[in-house]
Automatic annotation (TrEMBL):
UniProt GO molecular function: signal peptidase activity
Chief localization: membrane
Keywords: Hydrolase, Membrane, Protease, Transmembrane, Transmembrane helix
InterPro entries membership: LexA/Signal_pep-like_sf (IPR036286), Pept_S26A_signal_pept_1 (IPR000223), Pept_S26A_signal_pept_1_CS (IPR019758), Pept_S26A_signal_pept_1_Lys-AS (IPR019757), Pept_S26A_signal_pept_1_Ser-AS (IPR019756), Peptidase_S26 (IPR019533), PH_domain (IPR001849)
Membrane-spanning segments: 12-35
Gene behind this protein: lepB
Protein name per UniProt: Signal peptidase I
Swiss-Prot/TrEMBL catalytic activity: Cleavage of hydrophobic, N-terminal signal or leader sequences from secreted and periplasmic proteins
PH domain boundaries: 1-20
Native organism: Mesobacillus maritimus
Length: 183
């Protein structure tokens, strides 16, 4: 009888420890997220399931072109690509991104750029036109979806405070046929 109680107690302790570890890992390190919508096409598809690396942003700022998850003003979590870092000037003209006056290629947009026949994929704009400032404010980032014509991003909601960023994501784990690391 005592042996059964001891064994039961060991199982309960193991279960409690497992649940606590899972909660700690999910809250502080990694969390699953489901892509909701088409704003990151063709890179991400609606209902793709991904892992958010929360630890990556506890130690520093995002890097340009990272795909990040953040709390948006509508009490939703958005997934977008980092285009501008604090202090950057951002401009789009002739369907080309200019950061601090330097042109950048965006290979993840080529598929959509080749399909567009009625104008640019990304309408021309300057940062000042979109957020009323010449540079991305300190402590903020400027984000855009890859599906530029159908993305609600910093062009609409403004620069995103870095403290609202949950983490970086670059691994799709579901559906099985789409398992991959993304750029």
């Amino acid at each position: 009888m005592a042996k059964n109680k001891n064994e039961l107690w060991e199982w309960i302790k193991a279960l409690i420890i497992a649940v606590l570890l899972a909660a700690l890992i999910r809250y502080f390190l990694f969390a699953p997220i489901v892509v909701d919508g088409l704003s990151m096409m063709p890179t991400l598809h609606d209902q793709d399931r991904m892992i958010v690396n929360k630890f990556s942003y506890k130690i520093g700022e995002p890097d340009r072109f990272d795909i990040v998850v953040f709390h948006a003003p509508e009490n939703k979590d958005y997934i977008k690509r980092v285009i501008g870092l604090p202090g950057d000037t951002i401009e789009y003209r002739n369907d080309t991104l200019y950061v601090n006056g330097k042109a950048y290629e965006e290979p993840y947009l080529e598929e959509y750029k080749n399909q567009v026949i009625d104008g640019p994929l990304t309408d021309p704009f300057t940062l000042e036109e979109k957020i009323g400032r010449e540079t991305v404010p300190e402590g903020h980032i400027f984000v855009m979806g890859d599906n530029r014509r159908f993305s609600k991003d910093s062009r609409h909601i403004g620069a995103v405070p870095i403290e609202e960023v949950l983490g970086k994501t670059n691994f799709i784990y579901w559906p099985v046929e789409d398992i991959r690391f993304i750029q």
